[in-house]
Batch of 2 targets.
Target 1
Amino acid sequence: MDRYSRQHRIAGIGQHGQERLRSATVLVVGCGALGTHSADALARAGVGNLWLCDRDVVEWSNLQRQVLFTEADARAGIPKATAAATRLREANSDVRIVAHVAECSATFLAALPGRPDLVLDGTDNFPTRYLLNDWCHANRVPWIYAGATGTEGAAMVVRPGGPCLRCLWPDAPATADVGTCETVGILAPAIAAVAAFQVAEALKLLVGSPDVATGVFTCDVWRGHYTRLPLLDRPSPDCVACQHGQHPALVAPAPMAATLCGRDAVQIDPGTTAALDLTALAGQLAEVATDLQRTPHLLRFTADGVRFSVFPGGRALLFGVRDPLRARALYDRWIGRRP
Ligand SMILES: [Zn+2]
């Protein structure tokens, strides 16, 4: 236990808290910037069981902020969950780590071998966050929402019986309405600030501390602003999950990805009938995508070396990619899914 000697001197943890951490299981969904920061901290803190889930591979543009990855990982295109697990085992061989190279879907969550004690949001998209919200609500598992773009970040602890993400925002914002790391960039300290909040709250939850923060943590590291908005202290009377026990994300049709036979291309069908505002999307991508072309029938652009053709219903063809998981990651990154 010597390796944790500085940690269990913290009054709220102690030897007893350290034992609780050792027997805890945390599911980290998304091994990007936030997921790698938080998983690294939890492994070093001695959280005994970490389940990692990510569908993508390490790329050069990740290395600026995704702290568990190396140039060798990017060169070899190692799956993020696999690379993260390797690095975490080097940091703390006592932690039992399970790496899932998979899409976090309702099916994936249902197939987990048990309920984790806590779920951490390391995702980069709202549809997956609403899925986590609904699954955690249905299974009475706490989770910690977190996100960062540009120089700003936000995070919130969601506990069984307390306000959930749908209480705050009834529906996921459309990707065209919120910036992404691809369109507005991401400054690594914004990730570190949000991860610090997420990990501190995670440790408090896992040791059973009464000091878990309420409200919404927000920060802008460029301006030096760090605040917590005391927005909610009880579930919203209008929330479909908290008041009506409905979990729309658990029953929503999952997006379908199909490799086109004989072609280096994948078709993504988002599985919704909601229209996608191609003009708004084109405006958002104007400065970050190349070969952008808006026609009356579709939007074409190139990003990450892949050629996209996007149709008004959200269906898209991705040329230059064969792996459906990779294609779905690119789709969510550049187009996003409607809830
Ligand atoms: Zn709610």
Note: The pocket of zinc ion is lined by residues 163-164, 166-167, 235-236, 239, 241-242 (CB under 6 Å).
Target 2
Amino acid sequence: MSDPAIPVHWQSVRDHSRSFWDFTYVYPVVSRRSRGLSIGINLNPDKVCNFDCVYCEVDRLTPPRTRTLNLLQVRAELASMIRLAQSGELGHDPKFIEAAPLTRIIRDIAFSGDGEPTMVPNFDECVQVAVDLKTSHQLSDTRIVLITDAAGLDKASVRRGLALMDAHQGDIWAKLDAGTEDYFRQVNRSHIRFDRILSNLLLTARERPIVIQSLFLRIHGEPISDIELGAYCDRLNELTAGGGRIREVHAYTIARPTPEPWATRLSREELEARALVIRQRTGLKVEVFE
Ligand code: SF4
């Protein structure tokens, strides 16, 4: 179950906008999955992604403020945001008033953003920035999280970055929404082959435990079928049988409006029912987040 201490109606929970004050790359959110304050680093200000998920909330109609990733600026912004959190100033922002007590504790620094973080050519250098500031600000309990669609987990710079994360409380939250190539194409609309996603998940999960994040939804009114959910469970079982370690599965649904009006959310009960099936068929820990 998700943390009852963080109500879903808080503005800081509902509004996961990546624009905050005059920051370009760094943004604060209160995340139920992080159980508190997460400082996001948007590595894709150009809004480029190798998936085109039907439920994606990124506003690609508005032109990006910048298309380049300036790591010096990322470093400066991250240092400022850490200071804002630690000083308590962040909690005075109207967006965070309800969550003020949570904003002094930085639960994680998360690579996420308006696209896929592993698409940057220098992912390892990005991780180094987070590691440097985590260390210099004595954030010994703060995790470094990568939220990824898994397509780039086999790239050399990404693998170096993951190894660096491993040494500094890293956490990988990898997307898997489908059990078959067909449904993968329907939901994630990527040109990347589904078996590459699966082999990347296996490669990564053999080296450290990972979290699987799965969004379940209705497409034109139809929720994921029992057959597809069974295939999805089969894929999870293949990952564990192949030596991959899955720490837990995060099952969630659409929380905010999406550009595709026919992609709609499941009810809490529908989500719980699917989580139960996954638990029964895989034996994995499954947490539900609305
Ligand atoms: S992987 Fe994330 S950013 Fe990319 S299309 Fe899907 S939801 Fe959007």
Note: Residues 11-212 form a domain with the TIM Barrel fold (CATH 3.20.20.70).
